[in-house]
Amino acid sequence: MSDQPNSTFRPSMNWVHTWAGLLLGTLIFTVFWMGTLSVFDHEIDRWMQPSTRIVASAAPVDFDAMLESVRAEFPEREITEAGFAVQSERAPLARGYFAFAGGERETWIVNPETGERLAEPGSLAGTGFIYPMHICLLLPGIWGWWLVLIAAIAMMLLVVTGVIVHRKIIMDFFTFRQKKKLRRSSLDLHNLAGTLFLPFHFMIAFSGVMIFAGWYTSLVWLTLPGEAADRATILANAGDDYGYYSREAAGEPGATVPVMPLIARAEAIWSERYGEPVRADYINAGNYGDANGYIWMRRSYPERQVNQGVDTIAFDLTNGEMIVDFVPTPARQVQRWLAGLHFIQFDHWPLRWFYFVGGLAGCLTIASGFVFWTASRRSKIEAAQPFKVRLIDVVSVGSVTGLIAATCAFFVINRLLPVDASWNGFERGVLEGLFFFLVWILSFLHAGIRAKSAWAEQTFAIAALALGAVLLNWITTGDHPIAAAGRGLWSVAGMDLVLLAGAAIAAWAALELRRSKPSAERRSIDEAETMPGGAAE
Which pTM value belongs to this model? Predict the structure, then answer.
């Protein structure tokens, strides 16, 4: 394919497919990789936060007692807001979030079985680092959201153009010639992974755009010059559409009724409405101790349904009277069904594993596309490579193996740092994140220095880091896979087994990359072997 679009439709789509993948591949791979890991974000939490490794319990937590304990511990502080997250099977600890007059905040983590308060785990882990990296790249403000939107749209574009340029899409579904040279085997892998999971990849990208469509619309206004109050109004209106309730404080003290009976009332209303037991999964008490105090609660997502329902009920905290009983509109229910399809919070472990494998297939499709493009352009004389080929090779290595190695290093440093570690004002959770980005940056530098063998060396590094993470988890906690499974900690055992499988696959891939010796390949190949479906390069 030439560097300029041809006049006919299919070669033009080929051009779009190639250059959209090359220019946005790093962004798309990052979002897809972090989204794949986010399928098991709560399980990653339990692996990275050993203090949370308890067996899930249905024992109710008395949030009124938790409030009393907070007041007893901080008698000089005035609680202004309290939030409670109820435990679940995947996140077995109950949490309380408290804000005080003056801006101070406190988080309490409670073991539902014993009522014991646990220390902060000291790691952002899956839900605090990996998941936010997926949805907004951890960038300040709204710019990360824009980039993720671009990645999702680009992924849909790549799927559509990929279908158009394939003449032999059925044949690609069954073809993988591992023993061929790197450019041929990488193209087979690209076609196979992309074709096998094509509907899944389009669904994930499409649902990712649609579930945040309202939020993305508000981003347009948030980027325009304006007063902070206007921006707050936009965000508040967006929250109203989800049933979140709030109101201004009266500025006068007021009595507060107990929280637990109000939660029971809301759960009874929902259970009668839907004909099955329903519980609240998040509770927020605002203007606590004020005459305008209120409490709203959100029902848990249906355990066996795709739909992520957002029914909420709000009560007056001074007298217990109901203020709002919010039921989503049909349009919002469609949006929440798409959200459930994307975030897979429903209880279905086989389907959760399918999402994980499908996400890995998406990452493999992007990575093999990078490998094919650079392998098919290598010269026998490395110095003769055009600058753009060397640049894209460096970027692709750092984007793929570098990101995966940084993730494994993230797990390793988690097992090495003490729980109370801090440096230069940064707490342990932030230090883990900084180490992740440091390793990621170094991977790009390594790719630039070790161009001929960077793919293989970084893939070996992935294998070593993944194996090291498992061994360090065993050494520091005693929870090797057999021990963890024996205690009923399947999430911890599963994390170890996935890391071990990843280490084995990475070691095999590194040996294959070394065997292929791409720098000795011919520069040109048959038209039918080079491009998907036989399109000319």
Answer: 0.87
